[in-house]
Model the fold of this input.
Amino acid sequence: MRKTKPLYEGKAKILWETDDPALMVQEFKNDATAFDGTKHEVIEGKGTLNNTISSHLFHTLDEKGVRTHFREKTSDTEMVVERLDMLRVEVVVRNIAAGSMVRRLGVEKGTTFDPAIVEFYLKDDDLHDPILSEEHVRALGLATPEQVSQMKERALRVNEILGDFLLERGIRLVDFKLEFGTMNGELVLGDEISPDTCRFHDAESGEIMDKDRFRQDLGGFLEAYNEVLSRVSSK
Ligand code: ADP
Ligand code: TMP
Ligand code: ASP
Done:
């Protein structure tokens, strides 16, 4: 399998076509962006960290029977994935109130949600990824009712698996974002699972170990991502 041409370059990754029409190479760039790309920096080493962390987490999900696009990590910054038709929604799971939920609803930061909350957002930077009700998702034809319930169920299963896996390694899974696509009609988990797309807090100190370090200019970005890598790769 050989990569042929770049099909799509986003803010943080490049998706390459390969000589196998069913497979793509997902390359992780060193770009860090926030606030719909308005804040941007290049951070040497970030691509390798996110590719490696994401590979570990996809592998963990695969082992527990969650259908993901991940095939294998093929270089420091690349993984081979199955080619999907992506749904234009982002699925967010929240265990603890943080970020936009605190800003939007005035909930106290740190409030715990049990059961976890599942939300849908429209994947559209120009519209600033607005939140959607399940009815919006269906009415806009972004997913079928069956896909909506499958995404919710799948997202909560991912939350259970990764929540336990991470807590065993001293990391609290505060919230995260997933993207799904379809392959021959089957719903498959795609994209990445990394400190860019999750909030990770140290389970003891509460220290922030994710992209909020960049969003809020807290410093210690690479140190935090390296610490996440070292914990997720430990047995
Ligand atoms: P963005 O588009 O938000 O700037 P990225 O830089 O992360 O994002 O680009 C990755 C793009 O690749 C995203 O639009 C994502 O939906 C898409 N993608 C992720 N996994 C797959 C896959 N297996 N097949 C096709 N597209 C994918
Ligand atoms: P939020 O609090 O900003 O809505 O983010 C919720 C979670 O989703 C958080 O873990 C970060 C992640 N996320 C992304 O991965 N991409 C995005 O574009 C947004 C808005 C959030
Ligand atoms: N809005 C996203 C974030 O802040 C990513 C981005 O806009 O680049 O995580």
Notes: The longest strand covers residues 112-122. The first helix runs from residue 46 to 63. Residues 11, 33-37, 211, 215 surround aspartic acid (ligand 3) (CB under 6 Å). The radius of gyration is 17 Å.
